[in-house]
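Objective 1.3, modelling of assemblies. Example input:
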Amino acid sequence: MLSYLHGFHAGNHADVLKHGVLTLLIETLTAKPKPLVYLDSHAGAGLYDLNGEQAAKTGEFVDGIGRLWPMRHDLPELAGYFDSIATLNPNGGHARYPGSPELARRLLRPNDRLILMELHKTEVQGLRAALDGDPRVHIHHRNGFEGLPALLPPKPARGLALIDPPYEVKTDYAEVARCLAAAHARWPTGVYAIWYPRLGLDRDQSETLLQGLLDSVPRVLVAELSVRAQTRDFGMHGSGMALVNPPWQFDERLKTLLPQLAAALTLDGTGASGWRVAWREATA
Ligand code: SAM
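Predicted structure (tokens):
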């Protein structure tokens, strides 16, 4: 049974990191004229209403896009992300918030393609309602862990895959590693972006996840953002993006972006929250 609904979390600090990095990745890849394919194994509903019941119930977006939006003019690095939100909200604000498929759609070009997978019945209906009219978009109601490798290599064989499961069940961590191994075997030149949560000490599985990824690829670029210090039991204090085959010098771009996000989104002011951008290598 799938219980996770992204509407409760849309626009939170983890979405800001994920969608900010996704924006920079797509902008870098589209700087070259060749067409590309964007794949999203866990696409969600595509578009979220931050004035709606789900977002209001948790209020998570308040400390995410809610904090960042007033600072958008000081963050030119993320102009593409902010412009996408602004276009969705012609009367101002950020209440209509783009999920990864909608954001990608806005950043991609007429000759690029999007392949989106979503397993939850009502979420895939929302996704269809939000994006179906776009001829570049192909939506699959299926398990993204098996669907992503099965659909590879894409045509054209240039592109980016986002792997963004809920991690509500512990098995998701091992599934992600298995999914990357199978996908990378079929499409070794693809760019992969894997989102993961940073949880309280007793529950944090991020190191296990990174080691699992390094079983099939020689190195990953890791970008992590924490908005408060890690404690033993507090839930999600931060999150990370693990990138396989990122564009050349992408680490330098992240080293510009991440401190800005950390300064904007920190909640404890103790300096214990923060950011890191680092290459992790497989050990022989
Ligand atoms: N990528 C989206 C974004 O950034 O806007 C958010 C995705 S949300 C974190 C995870 C989604 O994965 C949920 O919509 C959930 O229904 C879906 N899901 C859970 N298990 C899945 C599976 N095995 N295959 C495909 N989708 C799945």
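Residues 8 and 55 are 5 Å apart (CA to CA).
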